[in-house]
């Protein structure tokens, strides 16, 4: 079902020293030369054992196969709409796939197929493999259907209708990229994205790159991500291959490594003949055919961008604008380091950096990943160190704002609060001090009255407030003399006094001063009288019983 199982099985067979037996692995990441060994069966004698993934099930035909051993499982790509992760779980194959595997043998002469599972198990399996439209992201499909005007996706007569949850997820993905509105209507940005023959996330990158002056670099990166990785890593020469590939590593970004590899290959391509270039690629563990495919895709994307009116930059792009453009298409692939190898991504996903990345040991605090894939673990592939603040301007509608701890600030004369900004549950910024007046005028006005006027916490106190505070202080001193605490009104009564007289739109000291300037009568309205502050009338003798001074013995 995968590369690891093939290697383990091949090593086990080779250790047995079987006579006249050749063990040949076959999987997608294998080098071109190793793959070609499987197809030149006429040049060798003896028994050949081909250990293949399901790439040999339908994609290719291996000559001379007489026996097929079918373990009955395969890695099947599935998209999780809940976590937005492309998963590769190992699952039992369908009856149709089993019959297809059986058909790999006996093409020249009679063959035998051995299934490592019971006939009862076979009969209980589904008749056909689930169609890909029911287990993949539908963002690209929906975008093209909207551009062609095919009506609502949910009502389209598909041969195999996809799950409605996948359809909703596709719309959410396009909304995240700015391609559709909240009502599912195509935006001008979405129409431009639909004209580019790449995944919607890559198309969004290209549009932003053209605006920020880094289209040339993003063209190289998107074309690289659209093809299979050309860097080969043979099982018996992994260290040598890693040393060759490490020359192109960048301190902070795997995306920049693509640019370095591209520049190096273009320089060699122009200096060497095609035969010399092939030899160089073989020596430096680069797949020549995949490098050529990379160039072909790059050329096609360049033509598409030219037709769309996107201009390439002539000067090399800086790190920040380049990764801002990449982030525009990969906004859901941000992650923050937590502990050890663990990162916390958007939608509360736990993930790790893929061990083959240049950032695996460096562990940047914040990272951006080209893709998040679940195999044995959830891995972030092709990552770069970024700043979370770069994500704030990409699609502000996706950000969640939380304000907490509102308080009065005497120095500025206004209510302040802490501000937290999050994206899909991932906190981008926290503890930002912001003016709370425009956010919640009611609470801000209450803080102005309760803290600024009642408690007197204003740096520049208006005349009415100085008068009121002096009058309250005198009455409180009288309370102290008579040793009673039931003469002066409480703070709530003071709050109600100001609340009834101040306009509702006054939330700061500056607004209060402006109102007093345009309304001179407001000073008299806000000036308190002694009767308004007393709960009960004082006896006329109260002042004589507790005089300020007493004459005694001269």
- Order of strands across the main sheet: 9-10-11-13-12
Percent range of helical residues: 40-55%
Rg value: 36 Å
How many strands?
16
Summarize the biggest pleated sheet. Answer: 5 strands, mixed, barrel
Regions with pLDDT < 50 over 5+ consecutive residues?
none
* Oligomeric state of shown chains: single chain
Q: How many H/I helical runs? A: 22
> How would you classify the helix and strand content by structural class?
alpha/beta
State mean pLDDT (0 to 100 scale): 89
Share of residues in strands: 15-25%
How would you sum up the global shape?
elongated
What is the straight-line distance between the termini? Answer: 112 Å
Can you tell me about this structure?
This protein is an alpha/beta fold and 554 residues long. The strands form 5 sheets. A 5-stranded mixed beta barrel has the order 9-10-11-13-12. The mean pLDDT is 89. The protein has helices at 3-15, 32-36, 55-58, 95-102, 119-124, 139-148, 164-176, 188-194, 200-212, 215-225, 238-245, 254-271, 274-283, 288-307, 319-329, 441-454, 463-482, 491-501, 509-518, 521-526, 530-533, 542-545, and strands at 21-26, 47-52, 67-70, 73-75, 78-80, 85-87, 90-92, 112-115, 334-339, 342-345, 350-353, 366-374, 378-385, 399-409, 414-423, 426-435.
Summarize the structure.
The protein has 554 residues and is an alpha/beta fold. It contains 22 helices and 16 strands. It has helices at 3-15, 32-36, 55-58, 95-102, 119-124, 139-148, 164-176, 188-194, 200-212, 215-225, 238-245, 254-271, 274-283, 288-307, 319-329, 441-454, 463-482, 491-501, 509-518, 521-526, 530-533, 542-545; strands spanning 21-26, 47-52, 67-70, 73-75, 78-80, 85-87, 90-92, 112-115, 334-339, 342-345, 350-353, 366-374, 378-385, 399-409, 414-423, 426-435.
């Amino acid at each position: 079902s995968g590369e690891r199982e093939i290697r383990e099985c091949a090593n086990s067979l080779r250790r047995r020293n079987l006579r006249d037996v050749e063990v040949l692995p076959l999987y997608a990441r294998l080098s071109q030369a190793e793959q070609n060994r499987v197809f030149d069966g006429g040049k060798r004698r003896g028994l050949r054992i081909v250990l293949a993934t399901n790439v040999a099930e339908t994609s290719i035909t291996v000559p001379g196969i007489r026996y097929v051993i079918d373990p009955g499982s395969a890695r099947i790509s599935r998209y999780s709409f809940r976590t937005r992760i492309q998963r590769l779980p190992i699952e039992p194959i369908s009856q149709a796939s089993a019959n297809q595997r059986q058909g790999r043998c006996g093409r020249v002469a009679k063959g035998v197929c051995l299934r490592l599972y019971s006939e009862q198990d076979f009969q209980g399996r589904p008749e056909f493999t689930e169609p890909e439209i029911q287990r993949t992201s539908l963002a690209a499909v929906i975008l093209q259907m909207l551009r062609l005007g095919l009506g609502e996706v949910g009502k389209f007569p598909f041969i195999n209708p996809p799950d409605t949850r996948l359809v909703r997820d596709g719309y959410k993905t396009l909304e995240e990229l700015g391609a559709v509105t909240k009502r599912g209507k195509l935006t001008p940005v979405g129409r431009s994205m639909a004209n580019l023959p790449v995944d919607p996330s890559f198309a969004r990158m290209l549009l932003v790159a053209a605006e920020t002056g880094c289209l040339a670099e993003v063209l190289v990166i998107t074309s690289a991500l659209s093809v299979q990785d050309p860097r080969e890593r043979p099982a018996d020469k992994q260290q040598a291959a890693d040393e060759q590939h490490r020359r192109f590593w960048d301190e902070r970004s795997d995306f920049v490594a693509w640019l370095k590899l591209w520049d190096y290959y273009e320089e060699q391509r122009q200096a060497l003949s095609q035969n010399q270039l092939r030899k160089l690629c073989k020596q430096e563990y680069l797949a020549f055919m995949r490098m050529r495919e990379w160039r072909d895709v790059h050329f096609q994307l360049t033509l598409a961008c030219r037709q769309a009116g996107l201009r390439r930059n002539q000067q090399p792009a800086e790190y920040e604008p380049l990764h801002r453009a990449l982030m525009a298409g990969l906004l859901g692939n941000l992650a923050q380091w937590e502990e050890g190898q663990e990162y916390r991504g958007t939608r509360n996903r736990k993930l790790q950096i893929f061990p083959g990345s240049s950032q695996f040991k460096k562990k940047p605090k914040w990272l951006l990943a080209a893709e998040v894939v679940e195999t044995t673990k959830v891995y972030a592939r092709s990552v770069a160190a970024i700043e979370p603040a770069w994500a704030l301007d990409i699609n502000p509608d996706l950000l969640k704002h939380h304000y907490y701890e509102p308080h009065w600030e005497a120095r500025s004369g206004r209510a302040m609060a802490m501000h937290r900004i999050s994206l899909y549950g991932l906190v981008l910024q926290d503890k930002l001090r912001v003016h709370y007046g425009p956010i919640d005028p009611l609470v801000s006005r209450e803080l102005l009255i309760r803290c600024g006027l009642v408690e007197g916490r204003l740096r520049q106190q208006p005349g009415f407030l100085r008068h009121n505070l002096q009058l309250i202080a005198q009455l409180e001193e009288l309370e102290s003399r008579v040793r009673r605490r039931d003469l002066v009104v409480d703070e709530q009564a003071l709050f109600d006094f100001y609340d009834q007289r101040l306009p509702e739109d006054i939330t700061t000291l500056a607004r209060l001063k402006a109102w007093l300037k345009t309304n001179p009568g407001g000073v008299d309205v806000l000036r308190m009288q002694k009767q308004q502050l007393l709960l009960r009338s004082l006896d006329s003798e109260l002042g004589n019983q507790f005089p300020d001074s007493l004459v005694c013995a001269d």
